[in-house]
Amino acid sequence: MRLTAKSFVLDLLSTLGGRSMPVRGLVAAAGLFGIEANSLRVALARLLAAGTLERDERGEYRLGERAQAVQHHVVSWRRLEERVRPWRGGWIGIHTSILGRADARRCERAFRFFGFRELSAGLEVRPDNLVIALSDLHRELVSLGLPRRAPVFTIAELDEASQARAAGSWNVRKLVADYHRSIGALEASAVRLPKLDPGEAMVESFVLGGRVIRQLVLDPLLPESIVDAAERRALVAAMRRYDKLGHACWRPFFSEYRVTSLRAPVDSNAESTDRAA
């Protein structure tokens, strides 16, 4: 899938850990992906006007405040397993029947980032196996689009039928198959990257690394009793290895434009990505 100028800008700037990048560097990088300079400049202007990007006194660009809620989740993929604890059978619920249609659309991103699924009309649930406190979870959901008035609460126990229906809300077979497929793609690319021209290696590591990180960021983090979490951990480990290769591919470019790359290329515009399993 071809990157748009908008998604490319957000992808690339998400690697910089708050640092900025000159326009000439953005233009040069975009050219590797077949994105014309004029399209890139239009995207920069629109993102700047929307507050998604900021420009410093040197005219260099970095992610703006409006992108920070998503960015916080995007960069957390390395610590994925630190976000979960053993599951005791309870659930987290969100009451949505009080929300209007416009509210419901804004909620979709928040639900994707935290793996919620609809149990019944007006009730979204997920296993209560996250380390985060309920009040902090509510705050993060709000930052991602959930209206503040939507109640978020714990459910100690569901009846047997509802429990079975809730546990079956995720396509676990597809989740595991996607883990395996991505591990294979990362391993194959790791062998291929040293043989590619520098520009080709930059493009491949950027696209594949971004796709796998989106997969991890939007993973529902299901407990062991629902999915084999070892498969998820194996993908995180594979992505960490590939991350180092991505750094190596991009380091000379960032050095040329005097930008320090802290993270592998990822997609900070995950609001446009729907990989619900």
What would you say this structure looks like, in words?
With 277 residues, the protein is of the alpha+beta class. It folds into three domains: 5-69, Winged helix-like DNA-binding domain superfamily/Winged helix DNA-binding domain (Arc Repressor Mutant, subunit A), CATH 1.10.10; 90-156, Alpha-Beta Plaits; 171-272. Helix content is 51%, strand content 9%. The protein contains ten helices and six strands; from the N terminus they run αααββαβαββαβαααα. The strands form two sheets. A four-stranded antiparallel β-sheet has the order 4-5-3-6, sandwiched between helices. A two-stranded antiparallel ribbon has the order 1-2. β1 and β2 form a beta hairpin. α9 (198-217) runs antiparallel to α10. Residues 264-277 have low confidence and may be disordered.
